[in-house]
Amino acid sequence: MEKKVVYIAGLGLIGASLALGIKRAHPNLTILGYNRSEASRIIALERGMVDQVTDDFASFAPIADVIILALPIKQTKSYLDILARLPLKDQVLVTDVGSTKAEIVAHADQVFQDQAVRFVGGHPMAGSHKTGAAAADETLFENAYYIFTPSSQTKAGSIENLKELLSGLRSRFIEINAEEHDRVTSQISHFPHLLATTLVEQAVAYGEEHPLANRFAAGGFRDMTRIAESEPGMWTSILLSNPHAILERIADFKERLDQVAETIQADNQEAIWTFFYEGRKHRQEMQIHQPAGRDSAYHLFIDVPDKEGVILEILQLLQGISLVNIHINEENREDIHGILQLTFRQAEDQKRAQELIQKATSYTVLAR
Ligand code: NAD
């Protein structure tokens, strides 16, 4: 693997983070980068993410053993078209990072038909609202699922080769069919995003006549709508490249809402209680409670009294413990379990901090 040449097209958040992760496991491997804008090219080169950069995509492709397209979904398809017309190395391994897979895999199958190109669809399931090489992070994909979706161009050993190349990401590699990937992500990712945005828009419209609605919006509303701040361009591409599965989820959700409305209209107390009871039970059983990915966070909620110096008192106790965020929940207390919220990246730090605070104070400390 060390002598191979890897070519990453698109040195944005995902492409540049992949470059860092690849270098982590294979420091001697040559990584070439293409980026349309100069800013990310300079950052990637200066920070040693890549060894050489170009603004001419076609120039490096013929010398690459592995080509990673880290571009928006539409551009991924256009760049597959370009690759199919270039004199690529025999058995070059091509992959992508698009958030939807069926359209890209079908496109690769079509353009590389009868060519000695190995194609594997890829989706690293971690990211953020940040963009560009400046936001790159070698830990971005740690513990996150990295999905491979094979195509008819995926020859024996292709996925194993990619896992070896990407081992420095420390991701959880998994292989599924592209259509199933798109169905599953429509439910757990695409639909929740459009729901969050719909909820925000509903609240804004309602707030025009009821301004207090915005003022009172607190924990529950914030948790439900955080992802409405995602990048609009990326989400437009995702919705447009997975329309059937998403429309099907919308129809299913409408039916479910109608059922809830019926139980309310019927004043059916038992059905409403069961609805909430089952929802709580099922959420508690869900795997989302098992931390994964770089976004994993371990919180402590501390019920501190509203008195001067109390935050400082807590922070002094935690000297030497790595804390990633401090939040004072001073708004509406619904859904909030303590006024001071401390966030840790590591479970051990959270545990140690909880022990220290409980030993030194009488404050209630809840770990989440
Ligand atoms: P980004 O905006 O940080 O980077 C996008 C890259 O595409 C940049 O290098 C940009 O120069 C390039 N690009 C955009 N339009 C182009 C064009 N017309 N021609 C040439 N290059 C162009 O975005 P990102 O988050 O790195 O997303 C890249 C891909 O990763 C997308 O397909 C997205 O679906 C996928 N993805 C994103 C996330 C996430 O949360 N950000 C997670 C998983 C997968």
TrEMBL record:
InterPro entries: 6-PGluconate_DH-like_C_sf (IPR008927), NAD(P)-bd_dom_sf (IPR036291), PDH_C (IPR046825), PDH_N (IPR046826), Preph/Arog_dehydrog (IPR050812), Prephen_DH (IPR003099). The keyword Ligase does not apply. It holds the Pfam family PDH_N. Pathway: Amino-acid biosynthesis; L-tyrosine biosynthesis; (4-hydroxyphenyl)pyruvate from prephenate (NAD(+) route): step 1/1. It catalyses: prephenate + NAD(+) = 3-(4-hydroxyphenyl)pyruvate + CO2 + NADH. Residues 3-294 form the Prephenate/arogenate dehydrogenase domain. GO terms for molecular function: NAD+ binding; prephenate dehydrogenase (NAD+) activity; prephenate dehydrogenase (NADP+) activity. The keyword Transcription regulation does not apply. Its EC number is 1.3.1.12. Belongs to the prephenate/arogenate dehydrogenase family. This is Prephenate dehydrogenase.
